[in-house]
Structure formats: C-alpha cells, structure tokens
Amino acid sequence: MEIFPGIEQDPDRRFGKPCLKGTRIDVATILGALAAGEDEETICENYQISKKQIDDALKYGAHIAEHVPPAQKGAA
Fold first, then answer.
1. What's the predicted TM-score (pTM) here?
2. For residue 52, which of 61, 64, 40, 36 has the smallest C-alpha distance?
C-alpha cells in the first residue's frame, strides 16, 4: 500500500518498513547512505534506483520528522 508518494509499506516486505515503491529497499537504508556521505550517483548505482526515488525517500523522511512530537523534558 502506498503510504506517501513513492513510498509503500507492506507487512510482508522488509518487516513492514517503509520502502521505495516497487522495490525492497527501505527508506532508512537510503537516508543512512546519504547521512554517511554517499553521493546520489553512487546510491543510484548501488541500489539500482533513480534520483527521483532518493528524493521520495528524503521527502518522506522530512514528512515523518515534521509530524513526530517533540521530546518532552523529563521523559525517560
């Protein structure tokens, strides 16, 4: 099921993690590669995805970060 433009979630695929539409590549893998300093061209080659799919992962990550409640002071 598409949960965000270009992002799907299926409980039977990758333990239910959000994945790039039509792939088994989860969003966290792509965001982690970017955070580790890999450039988009290398990621596209390594995972056989498009730059648009990388953009979809970034947009989804930003959407999630925007909607997660802030940490509460004193929360354990």
1. 0.86
2. 40
